[in-house]
Each structure stands twice: as C-alpha cells, then as structure tokens.
Amino acid sequence: MVSRPHGGRLVDRVVRGRRRERLLEEALELPRVELDAGLASDVANIAHGVYSPLEGFLVQEDYESVLYDMRLSSDIPWTIPIVLDVDPSQVAGVREGDDLALFYNGRPLALMRVEEVYGWDRGEYAERVFKTRDPRHPGVRKVMARRELLVGGPVDLLAEPPEPFEAVRLWPKETRVLFEARGWRTIAAFQTRNVPHTGHEYVQKAALTFVDGLFINPLVGWKKPGDYRDEVIVEAYKALIKHYYPRDSVVFSVLRMEMRYAGPREAIHHAIVRKNFGATHFIVGRDHAGVGSYYGPYEAWDLFREFPDLGITPLFVREAFYCRKCGQMVNEKICPHPEEYRVRISGTRLREMIKRGEKPPEYMMRPEVAEVVLSHPNPFIEEGEAQG
C-alpha cells in the first residue's frame, strides 16, 4: 500500500470553478507581492499537497520550531522552513486576517490569508539549516539576499505557474492513483539534480530489486552554476529508462523545487516530499543534497536515525564504483578487491570530460545517455544565468 501523506492528509488548496474566477478578480484589488520562480513553485507545491501537511507559509511558532527542533509545532517532522519573505513596504498597512495577492510574472497566482508578519535572522537561519554562514555556500548566499520580513498564513492557488515539462510532471494525487493502478505496494523514490551515470543506475536497480516500483523524481528549477540544465536531465533520464529499465518498472516525473544544498536536513525534506507522492522507501545516497565539503559523506544517514516517526523507510545504499576485477558496478560491501582495481565514478570528472566534448567510457555512463548530454552545446548552468 502506498504511504499515507505526511501528517495523515493530502493537502489540496487549488481553487476551481466559479470561486476561482471570483477570486482572480478580487486579487487585482488587493495588496500584492510579486514572487520569484522559487516562491511560485513553493506555492504550487503547498496547494497540490507536495508539502503536506503545510497549508501555507510558516507562521513564527512553526518557523522557530522547524529551525531549532526540525519539527512543526504539532511535533510532525519537518526540516526546511518554507517561508515567504517580503519588504516592509510590501506589507505596510496589512493586518492579521487580511488577504494578500501573490503575483508571478505580473499575473495573480494565489491568495494568502495573512496570519502573521514577523522578522527573522537570516544568519541564524543559515547557521541552523546549512550548518554554516559561509557566503560561498550557494544556499547561504541565496538566503542572505532575501528580504527582512516573513509572512505566514495559508494560500489558495488560483493559477498554475508555467511548467515547460508539463508532459512529465505529476502531482501527488496522480502518482498515488498510478501506483495503485500498477499494483505497487512498495515504491522507492530517487531524488536527483544530475544526469544519470552508471553509479546512479546501480543504486536505483539495487533498490528496485526489493520493491515493486521505482519513482525517479528529479528536481527542476533553481540550481547553482555548474549543475546540469533541466532539459538535459530530463532527456538523459528518458534515454536511460527507455533503453535500460523493464517496461512499467519506473514512474518518471519532474518536481519543480529549488535545490537548497542543505545536506542532511534537505535529505529529510526530500524524503517527506516523496512520501507525499506515495513512496514507501527513499534512496539516500552519499553526500545527499550536499555541496563542497560542508557535510560528511554519510551525515544524512545519521540524521534519518533521529526520525523514527518519519513514515518512509530510508534505503542507505553505499557509493558504487566500477571494479576492474569484478568487471561490473559494485560497492565496498560486495567487492573484495583492493583499491587499485576500483574506479570511482566522479561527477566532477564526468563534467570535465563533457565540457571537452569527450564521450565518457561505457562503465561510467551509458552511451545513449552520453549522446543526449553531448548533443547540447552547453549542458551546464553558467554563472549569472537565470535557471528555473
């Protein structure tokens, strides 16, 4: 049986029918806040239940509880504060109980019932969520640039943000129906922000050996310079699934959500989100959601052990490597051979090869995947470029 939504109920705050038409007109007369792409995707994720049990952006009590205890004030596990930041001028005169119109690209996206406006310490947020205040950390840099006040309260979605990958985007209501229709009782979810190499494939198939189905759910949206472009990730995974997975063993869907590079905390967040899609298991890899050397390679594994009530089973799969003696992808638990036979699948090395236009060897990347990646003139996000 697919997992129960986090908190017990799948949130649905999508406004439909005549009420939607009425509220769209009302939104034009209300105080408004223009959202960026990341906040717009947060609103959609709240409304469609991706962030269940959240009904809106966090009020102060929940914000502080998440920041310091990694739980909502109701004691439900939650590790990443989902917050709406504003300038004081945007909420001047706005009081508790007022409605606020949330706009995206100049058009009404949602209404928000204001429950609270409060201040926050962005440095403290960075210290708690990212375990550092180092401005070289991409998550820290982004948080420190946010506005000085936070607004908490429930949201009602009036219009869907544009989604270039609509053909491969499923919401939790849809994945749950699909998993049930396929008769899957156990589903392992895989989070990624990269194109697949053979190490990823090994981990996914190791999990698939023990469950009924695999849910591959890459993030599309804001990522740091040097990461793969969204379209490259999507096309590469389509190629891998088409050529190397049994039919109907995989559900592939994109998730529009920013990478925060918060390491262990973000690993828990990623698991909760996939639980809401119906996954029963979540694959936790090496340095999950990490960047640089800010987190230990298996630090996320330790944090999962602090959440026995998470409601989704973590699958701790060790780093895969190619063993010349074994002649295949293995990990240290099943390979007896010394380091001289082991070839690590380095994401950095793969990127360097791709930048030079070189096709990676087949033990590192499937040829069909490499062909897709190399067909793009520049598969990587560049410095200063808007992505997502």
Describe this structure in words.
The protein is an alpha/beta fold and 388 residues long. The protein has two domains: 17-157, Roll (Sulfate adenylyltransferase), CATH 3.10.400.10; 166-374, Rossmann fold. 31% of the residues lie in helices and 18% in strands. The chain contains twelve helices and 16 strands. The strands form three sheets. Strands 1, 2, 3, 4, 5, 6 and 7 form a seven-stranded mixed β-sheet that branches. Helix 10 (299-304) links the parallel strand 12 and strand 13. Helix 4 (122-130) packs antiparallel against helix 5 and helix 8 runs antiparallel to helix 12 (367-374). The protein is globular and about 70 Å long. The mean pLDDT is 95.
List the helices and strands and how they pair.
Blueprint: H1 17-27, E1 32-35, H2 37-47, E2 56-57, H3 60-69, E3 84-86, E4 99-104, E5 107-113, E6 116-119, H4 122-130, H5 138-144, E7 149-157, H6 172-181, E8 187-192, H7 198-208, E9 213-220, H8 230-244, E10 250-252, E11 255-256, H9 263-277, E12 281-284, H10 299-304, E13 313-316, E14 321-323, E15 328-330, E16 342-344, H11 347-355, H12 367-374
Parallel strand pairs: 1-4, 8-9, 8-12, 9-10, 9-11, 12-13
Antiparallel strand pairs: 2-7, 3-7, 4-5, 5-7, 6-7, 14-15, 14-16
Helix pairs in contact: 4-5, 8-12
